[in-house]
Amino acid sequence: MCGIVGYAGHRQAVGVVLEGLGRLEYRGYDSAGVAVVDRGQLKSRKRAGKLLNLVEALERGGPLAGRVGVGHTRWATHGAPTDPNAHPHVDCTGQLAVVHNGIIENFATLRAEALASGHELSSETDTEVVAHLLESEMAAMAGVDGPARPGALAEAMRRVCRRLQGAFTLVAVDGRDPGAVVGARRNSPLVIGRGQGENFLASDVAAFIAYTPHALELGQDQVAEVRADQVRVTDFDGSPAQVREYLVDWDISAAEKAGYQYFMSKEIAEQPRAIADTLLGRVGPGGKLVLDEMRLPEDELREVDKIIIAACGTAYHAGMIAKYAIEHWCRIPCEVELASEFRYRDPILTRTTLVIAISQSGETMDTLMAVRHARDQKSRVLAICNVNGSSIPRESDAVLYTRAGPEVAVASTKAFLTQLVGCYLVALYLAQLQGTKFGDEVGSVIDQLMRMPAAVDRVLDSMDQVRELARELAGERCVLFLGRHVGYPVALEGALKLKELAYMQAEGFAAGELKHGPIALVEAGLPVVVVVPSPEGRAVLHDKIVSNIQEVRARGARVIVVAEEGDTRVRPYADTLIEVPQVPTLLQPLVTAVPLQVFACALASAKGLDVDQPRNLAKSVTVE
Ligand code: M6R
Predict the structure, then answer these.
(1) What is the position in ligand 1's atom list of the atom closest to the CA of 312?
(2) How many angstroms is it from 132 CA to the middle of ligand 1?
(3) Considering Cα of 507, then 511, then 516, then 519, what sign does the dihedral take?
(4) CA 412 to centroid of ligand 1, rounded, Å
(5) When you count CB atoms within 10 A of the terminal residue's CB, does the N or C end of the chain come out lower?
(6) Is the pTM for the entire model greater than 0.90?
């Protein structure tokens, strides 16, 4: 949701913070702001709109000097995206500034209390009340101890956090405790970057990776006091806390556009490598899957008799595809659940239910809550996740990391394909463990998976036709996407991409469902994209979709077919034919999803829209 950066060191904080915010802008771009402390004085600037507006304001207003600072890029929850609602929020003294990601659920009570005790609040946000609570705590401590002492801001933060309900990452600076930047987290991400003579706080390592690869995971309900030469972490009650240190295994070039027009086009192009990386070294001796973190005995996995996949958005579509593979290879019943609905319908979970949580960011609150609910009910949870050390894998029993590298564009692409690879690997592993597939059968699917990077590469080589088509269709109002079997979730994914990037009405349907209602949408000239199953697989599936194509053609639709090379039977019915390499049916989404990603990206670009930062969205959704 929002992006946060904090810095204490030997450089000018404003430069480091703005650079970090630039890398976190994918998390929200409704407003941006910075605050720095210079010789005990706080200075801040904030502006509604993208980071560029803030940069221009800083250029006009003169530089903000100071070696300690915070910054924020916002995805609005409480209050419209205006200048007053932008972060940082300051207290009545103008000495203290705070930035926040998340939602403070008891803010109305706290706000009423702050107003009653004479504080003046000027925004509609839940965050501002934290600035005033911190002010009161600083004042109370000064009353006891005299003027603020080093460590006062961290102590004030602990006291305030103990009163807050909800999900929050908070980072604050104060002119009265000038060398420190203090962060706290509950149910929302915050990482520490440890440099030489400088330290960082950020929502994501991308904000500081240009300066240091050394990161510390701040745990749940912990406060970090970060100074140029020191990092101190405690629990909310003040006891010293242990934190895990790790080395970030990608560098700054992975988080830059590298000559591409958009992050999205770069990330689409990276898919062959991302798939290869996700497969690398995964199959150990005896064909066993190598998971990154395994806190699940094999005996328990042998007893799994039901699988529930919980995920959101694109990751949910990956889960829908995984269901076909899991049920076919493992013969274990598998349900796929929108994470946001999961715990509210009282799902039947037992010790022998395995819940698979799929998430690129590992911070999606709906999915995190599903994980917690499953574990409360004593089910085991396996995470398939892209971001190392994020909340979902940390709270799961086992983890398979997809190695897609940083995904910056809001629209998910390489994360989707690597989530699929992760799901296939988990399914094969369970199939082998439960004896529903022999080792050589598993080995043969793994061989086919190993050929997928080359297959995706071939798809990428032939995308000019798709870009041309996107330009041609840029003026359309509506596009339908149809598919059957694993092609159905691909159709949903194609529609989601087009909605989120091109703001068009785009709907995905199971092709067989069309005649039960949606066919009424079809009119002359309506573009209908059809994902056609391989004719080499179950012939009946292919025949049925050809009939569905006839049905929409008969009503005047313009049919765009995504089909396997050599599929001569579908060719006569295609107004536009997009060919993909022949691959096994269950793996087909790895090649058919790619033209739909390119299509949405090119169409949004043709409409002059912001491809990487579509309106109203944020990359990681850390509120429910
Ligand atoms: O980080 P996650 O995979 O948990 O995110 C889930 C969805 O928010 C995400 O896939 C979203 O649907 C994408 N922006 C779609 O492109």
Answers:
(1) 6
(2) 34
(3) positive
(4) 6
(5) C
(6) no
